[in-house]
Structure formats: structure tokens, C-alpha cells
UniProtKB/TrEMBL annotation:
Skewed-composition ranges (Low complexity): 351-366
The protein, known as: Peroxidase
Domain of life: Eukaryota
Active site: H74 (proton acceptor)
Region Disordered: start-end pairs: 347-366
Organism lineage string: Eukaryota, Fungi, Dikarya, Basidiomycota, Agaricomycotina
Keywords: Calcium, Disulfide bond, Glycoprotein, Heme, Iron, Lignin degradation, Metal-binding, Oxidoreductase, Peroxidase, Signal
């Protein structure tokens, strides 16, 4: 009887192993080196290695990473069911590569000023690899972010069809837009909640502005633009005292630090009752920052597509380095410099960085 029970148990174990093996079986890619859970992902290994070495300078979190991440958003947000319903005209295809395919049209939209540079840098990589423009834009953004300490490991999908017509103008929010219009635009594009809008703005932790004040290109939005950390959410809530350049530019308000730019839209979202508490919640919560951005990015990157019809190739995204900074107030500033906006939760107590008053260096050009 004991033998029979043991045999039955072993049969169950063997069956479970067969099922598990079927779930985890991998295909050998044509290069004979890599394996993948889906053969459609095999071509991406060469793309990843090429852009890491030749677009992202050997795997750095630099200017081309910042701009590639920006491009993922500017392409994907170009979709408006409202425009389609109210005018009967094409409302955009979302993450369909239209911003690069119709570069001569979409890069002339005011909100897209400057994205032509990264489009032109990416173009040779698309030309020499078997990948759609739509897939490449989102793939490059996710791979680039993996170079940044503290970043989440983003999801990647392939199988998008390339655009056959450009997205309409006015689908990309501007830094001088009101909070009402920004929230409405995101809701129209993909049903994004105010919390998801704040999560998408985590991208500004490694971002910089080139065209808000053309006299100081490469001006970052926080004091650690090489780190995917929470400093952006801290420093947007500090009292603004100066302009880093000429001042008086549309879409810019005073910043708390020399060498740092504050967008009007970021300032207002950090202080609006609908978003202030969510904004503050990221201040000293690196884990939430990572998980919230990962989820919001995933939703954005498939706008205009049915995710179930795409292939998940997230396994190709490298594990980002761990964060090398912790939440702090910049040197020379204190908790008294915080403009408390969340009505329900006090601003967290943070240490102040040691040393002289912080001066932020611009992001060097690639």
C-alpha cells in the first residue's frame, strides 16, 4: 500500500514537472547564443546590444536615454478618441511610430520641439534591424532606462503595426497647460487617472529641458538627473526663488536651485488638491516610485493596441543598477523651504545634504 501511494505521488510530481516545463520552455534563437520564451523576441537581442553600445554609450544613463524616454511618451500620447468622435477625423494611433515616420509633420508641433534630434539618432538603428519603428521607440526607451540607478525593470512588447498617418496636433500636453487640461488630455488618451499622471511624471527624475529656455539647454528638473530617484518629487515642492537662465519663459516658474529648471505644469500638479498628496507620496518611497512608473509606462507603451495581441519580450530588459542615492533636502535648504500642499499628510522629515548650497550642473550633450 505504501508503494502504491509513493508511486501515485511520484506520478503527480512528474506531471507537474511536465506542465512546468511546458510553461518555461525556451526557443533557441537563430544566433545560436540566446534563448527566448517566444521566437519573436530573438531579433531584439541584437537590437539591444547595438543600442546599448552605440546609442547609449556603453550603457550609460545619459542624454540619449533621457531623450529616448521622452520620445516614448511623445509618440504614445498621440491618440485622442475625443477628436475622432467629435470631428470624425483620425485621432491618432498611439504608440505607432508616427512621430518618426511622419517626422516632417509631427516634429513641427510646438510640443514636440527638439525630438527630431533623437529621432534622427535612432533612425540608423531601425534601418539595420528587423523591427518596426513603433516597437523600436518603446524598446529603446525601456532599455535606456535600465541604465539608470534606481530605475524599475520596464516591460517591453513587440508586434505593433507602424503608423500610416500622422497623429493630430495638440495631443501632447505642454508645460504651460493647466492642470485641468493636462488631466483631461491623459484621460482622453487612455483613461489615465490623476494618480497615473503623477506616476508617468516620474520620468522627469532623469529629464532635462532644451527648449523652454534655449539659452540653457540641458537644464535638469532635479539635482540628480543621472539617478532614477525621488529627488524630483522633493525639489518640486521647495519654494521657488530664482530662474536658472533668462527667466520669464513660457511654461517655466522659479526654481529653488541654481542650474535646475521647474516646469509650470510640474509646479501646479505638485500643489493641486487632486494630485498633491499622490505627488508627496513619492518623496521618500523609492519602491512605490518604481512600481507606479513601471505600471504607468506599461499602460502608455501599448496605447492604441490590444496588449493581448502583442508579444511580451520584457525578459530582454536588463536589471537596472540599485539606487545610489537616498531622499534628502539639497544642501543649504531645510524643511522650512517646503511648500506643504497635501492637506492630509505632513511632509516627511528628510536629512539635509551636507556641504555648500547646491548648484546643479547641466546635463552634458551626447
Amino acid at each position: 500500500m505504501a508503494f502504491i501511494k509513493l508511486a501515485s505521488f511520484l506520478s503527480v510530481v512528474a506531471a507537474a514537472q511536465v506542465v512546468n516545463g511546458a510553461l518555461t520552455r525556451r526557443v533557441t534563437c537563430p544566433d545560436g547564443v540566446n534563448t527566448a520564451t517566444d521566437a519573436a523576441c530573438c531579433a531584439l537581442f541584437a537590437v539591444r546590444d547595438d543600442i546599448q553600445q552605440n546609442l547609449f554609450d556603453g550603457g550609460e544613463c545619459g542624454e540619449d536615454v533621457h531623450e529616448s524616454l521622452r520620445l516614448t511618451f511623445h509618440d504614445a500620447i498621440g491618440i485622442s478618441p475625443l477628436i475622432a468622435a467629435s470631428t470624425g477625423q483620425f485621432g491618432g494611433g498611439g504608440a505607432d511610430g508616427s512621430i518618426a515616420i511622419f517626422e516632417d509633420i509631427e516634429t513641427n508641433f510646438h510640443a514636440n520641439l527638439g525630438v527630431d534630434e533623437i529621432i534622427d539618432e535612432q533612425r540608423p538603428f531601425i534601418a539595420r534591424h528587423n523591427i518596426s519603428v513603433a516597437d523600436f521607440i518603446q524598446f529603446a526607451g525601456a532599455i535606456g532606462v535600465s541604465n539608470c540607478p534606481g530605475a524599475p525593470q520596464l516591460d517591453v512588447f513587440v508586434g505593433r503595426l507602424d503608423a500610416t498617418q500622422p497623429a493630430p496636433d495638440k495631443t501632447v500636453p505642454e508645460p504651460f497647460d493647466t492642470v485641468d487640461s493636462i488631466l483631461a488630455r491623459f484621460s482622453d488618451a487612455g483613461g489615465f487617472t490623476p494618480e497615473e499622471v503623477v506616476a508617468l511624471l516620474v520620468s522627469h527624475t532623469i529629464a532635462a529641458a532644451d527648449h523652454v529656455d534655449p539659452s540653457i539647454p540641458g537644464t535638469p528638473f532635479d539635482s540628480t538627473p543621472e539617478e532614477f530617484d525621488t529627488q524630483f518629487f522633493i525639489e518640486t515642492q521647495l519654494r521657488g526663488t530664482l530662474f536658472p537662465g533668462t527667466g520669464g519663459n513660457q511654461g517655466e516658474v522659479e526654481s529653488p536651485l541654481r542650474g535646475e529648471m521647474r516646469l509650470q505644469s510640474d509646479s501646479e500638479l505638485a500643489r493641486d488638491s487632486r494630485t498633491a498628496c499622490e505627488w508627496q507620496s513619492f518623496v521618500n518611497n523609492q519602491a512605490k516610485l518604481q512600481s507606479a512608473f513601471k505600471a504607468a509606462f506599461r499602460k502608455m507603451t501599448v496605447l492604441g493596441h490590444d496588449e493581448s495581441e502583442l508579444v511580451d519580450c520584457s525578459e530582454l530588459v536588463p536589471t537596472p543598477p540599485p539606487p545610489s542615492s537616498s531622499a534628502h533636502l539639497p544642501a543649504g535648504l531645510t524643511h522650512n523651504d517646503i511648500e506643504q500642499a497635501c492637506a492630509f499628510t505632513p511632509f516627511p522629515t528628510l536629512p539635509t545634504d551636507a556641504g555648500p548650497v547646491t548648484t546643479v550642473a547641466p546635463v552634458p550633450p551626447s
